[in-house]
Amino acid sequence: MTGRTAIAVLAVVMAAIQPIAAAAQTSDAVGVVTTIDGRATVARPAVPSPLSLKFKDDVFGRDRISTQENSLVRVLLGGKAILTVRELSEVTISEEPGRAVVTLPSGKVAEAAHAPG
Known about the structure:
2 helices; mainly beta; about 120 residues; globular; single chain; five-stranded antiparallel sheet; six-stranded antiparallel sheet
């Protein structure tokens, strides 16, 4: 599998998880870091160099999260979906109306969504 094949590996469909629109009313965050084990950084378009990612940091559209060796990050997206970014991985989170899209150029992720009801 090439890197380009892996780019569009995962789309976290948030149609049933609409809090992204509600979250945008109070801030531009699409998610929040709920777990960080080890070292991870976040690169933002408006910031010249990556920042260390910390527990309870907001995650915004177009953020790129990178994890180091023996590291793991969990992000709560839209209030109901957990994105787990495993070691030596890189993901970019973008937002579209009603959903967050996660692009995985390298590494491993897992996603779990809570269905309403």
